[in-house]
Design goal:
The protein is α+β, with helices and mostly antiparallel strands and 206 residues long. It is built from seven helices and four strands. The chain has one domain: 3-Layer(aba) Sandwich (Glutaredoxin).
Length: 206
C-alpha cells in the first residue's frame, strides 16, 4: 500500500484530469489517496505571465482563497469534496465560478456556503501561500500543478492529456508507484500540448 498525495490548483485542467484518474484508479484498492492544495498564483508571483494565462492566475488567486478557507475550517478532506463539485462545474460544464456557483458547490460538498465570501478576501492569501509552500517542500523544488507524492517521494505531474481508460488507469497507477518506490528513479518527461481533452457540457452541475 502506498500513501499518495496529489497537490493541485483547482483551476488547472491537467490537474483535474489527473485527480479524476487517480481517484478512480485507486477506488477500492490498497492505496491511501489525499488531494491537497497548491497555487499557480503563488507559483507565478514575481514572474512574467503571458496575457493568455493571466485570467487563470487571477482565477487561481480568488478560488484558492475559498478552498483554503474550507480546508482551514473543516480539514483536508474538505478540499477534495469541494474540488469534486467545483472542478466539475469549471472543467466539465464550462461554468464560471462566481460567488453563487461557489456557494452551491460548498453546499453540495457539505460545507458552509458562506465560505464563498472569501473569494475577495486577501486575508486568506497567507494561508494559500502556506499550503503552496508545502507542495514545493514535498517536491523538493519549484513545480507546477499537479505534483504527486508517493510514500514521501515527490514528482512533477503526472500530466495527462486525456483520461486513461478503465483498463489502463489502474495499470498506470501501479506503474507510477513502482517507479516512485524504485531507488534512484528521478524523472520521466516528454513534450505535450494542452489543454487536455475533457468532455464538456454547458449544463449546470447537479
Amino acid at each position: 500500500m502506498a500513501e499518495i498525495d496529489l497537490y493541485l490548483d483547482p483551476v488547472c485542467p491537467f490537474a483535474w484530469v489527473s485527480s479524476q484518474w487517480l481517484l478512480a484508479a485507486a477506488d477500492n484498492g490498497p492505496h491511501s489517496i489525499r488531494l491537497r492544495q497548491m497555487s499557480l498564483a503563488v507559483l507565478n508571483e514575481g514572474h512574467d505571465v503571458g496575457a493568455d494565462h493571466k485570467p487563470m492566475i487571477e482565477r487561481s488567486r480568488r478560488l484558492g482563497r475559498v478552498f483554503a478557507a474550507a480546508t482551514e475550517a473543516c480539514g483536508p478532506e474538505a478540499f477534495a469534496r469541494l474540488h469534486a463539485d467545483a472542478g466539475a462545474r469549471l472543467h466539465v460544464h464550462g461554468e464560471e465560478l462566481g460567488p453563487d456557483a461557489l456557494a452551491a458547490s460548498l453546499t453540495r460538498a457539505g460545507l458552509d456556503p458562506a465560505l464563498a465570501q472569501h473569494v475577495d478576501d486577501p486575508g486568506l492569501d497567507s494561508t494559500v501561500t502556506r499550503f503552496h509552500e508545502a507542495s514545493q517542500n514535498a517536491l523538493g523544488g519549484r513545480g507546477g500543478s499537479p505534483i504527486i507524492v508517493i510514500d514521501g517521494q515527490g514528482f512533477s505531474g503526472p500530466v495527462l492529456t486525456e483520461s486513461p481508460t478503465t483498463q489502463h488507469g489502474p495499470a498506470l497507477l501501479d506503474a507510477l508507484v513502482t517507479a516512485a518506490t524504485t531507488p534512484g528513479f528521478a524523472a520521466l518527461h516528454r513534450p505535450y500540448h494542452g489543454p487536455p481533452t475533457i468532455a464538456r457540457t454547458h449544463e449546470r452541475a447537479h
